[in-house]
Write a structure and sequence with these properties.
Its cofactor is [4Fe-4S] cluster. Keywords: Iron, Iron-sulfur, Metal-binding, S-adenosyl-L-methionine. This is Radical SAM core domain-containing protein. One of its GO terms (molecular function) is iron-sulfur cluster binding. It comes from Azospirillum argentinense. This protein has 502 residues and is an alpha/beta fold. The protein has two domains: 79 residues, no CATH class; 302 residues, Aldolase class I (TIM Barrel, Alpha-Beta Barrel), CATH 3.20.20.70. Helices cover 39% and strands 14% of the residues. It contains 18 helices and 18 strands. The strands form four sheets. The protein has a nine-stranded mixed beta sheet, sandwiched between helices. Helix 6 links the parallel strand 10 and strand 11. Helix 4 runs parallel beside helix 5 and helix 12 packs parallel to helix 17. The longest helix has 20 residues. The radius of gyration is 24 Å and the shape is globular. The N terminus and C terminus are likely disordered.
Length: 502
Amino acid sequence: MAGRAPFSHLNEFRPSGPGYRHLPFRFARVPCVAGKVLVTSEVGEFEFLTDTEFRTFAAGTLDEASDTYANLQAKHFLVEGDASTAIRLVAAKYRTRKSFLRSGPALHVFVVTLRCDHSCRYCQVSRRAPDESCFDMSEETALAAIDRVFEVPSRTITVEFQGGEPLLAFPRIRQIVEAIEERNRSEGRCFTYTMTSTLHLVDDEMLAFFRKHGFQLSTSLDGPAGLHDANRPMPGRDSHRRTVETIERTRAALGPHAVSALTTLSRASLGHPEAIIDEYVRLGFPSVFLRPLSPFGFAARSAQRIGYTTEEFLRFYERALAYILKLNREGIRLQEAYAAILITHILTPFPTGYADLRSPTGSGLGALVYNYDGQVYASDESRMLAEMGDQTFRLGSVHDRYADLMASEAMQVLLATGVAEALPGCSDCAFLPYCGADPVFNLTREGDPVGHRPTNEHCAKHTGLFSILFRYLAEADPHVMSTFTSWATQRPVQCLPGAEAA
């Protein structure tokens, strides 16, 4: 059973006798990995040690002729003699892990409307009726937001369109993209366009536009028809049918990989992990994102009816991941998107584009959100928090031309509370190199952007997820390791003996 574990660390150089010295490391006993201690370095290298190996390593008396010694030395847990070369190598890895800080916010989210034609029980925004056009982004606001996009130093930028249902404001999407493309003729930056939508309203004109500009589209699919329609009700009770039809239509127009999907898990979802995953397989998706409920908007108000505990989610997730790995063993290639992000953090030194698992926080530093009314937020969750009446993480307005968003009071709060290495309970956690700080979630749940680790849901969830993944890594099953490596590198799985060809 996945759960939380006590953590401790040694975070300084420590003379350990004539043989070697430690470089900074943290350690933990991971549930379900009996008799082993997980040690992790500042740059995310890891090793499992027996109790005896750990005690002798910590005491500085580890046998220098052992394989364990060689492994720890190769991963720079320990050094002999002059440590300068090892420190330079560790510093290079650390710079790689934190390379997302070099370019400023690279994700820019345009909330073009709050209008929506769905009534999802877990909706995390303050949606509006389809005829309330006063909640659409104006042309003036859109142009001012574009000015903000071009202020950032990043040469590679993703522009994402959200709502509500963004297709209800498609003319604004067209105007924004065309304005960006016109301005970019002199700027020469690399733009990628994405949109999150039900896709129910898509037509041939929209598809032609998306094809022309290379859009990547994301939609919601909560599983088979009964579950999807219960979670995402529409007057005609045909949300699932319409979703499947528009997915196929969009794939036909844009290509098989132009549409991705994610599932939001309600209480009703937790008993059906195999059915949800089978639906993604049936529809030919290469990936499924098993996303728990968000503590914002309508989802927060409906928590008693559709919510669940972190422990219940982790039980579901453990069962779902085991099923996905079983399918991969049988030759059915399917990735769990969040596990892929975490595994990438564990197995490689490279950051992902996932802003919620960064330290310093990705809110504001990695992403900016332009609301329909011109208010700028540090993240989509910051915007949702503002819709609930808390403006703590509002950075400013696109209409204030001379305001420095990065110098705002909200940004100062994020910088002060968004560095996991400096947070109590995070600084000594063995999973720190792979995790991140989430001040917005902490403020929402606990009324404090720092949060209290023993009662923190973000911490409990990720401790549980990392424990599940490290249990698999400790077992080192060749099929699982091959699958995890393919998720981390985005390369095909190497077929192993006993595995069927995909």
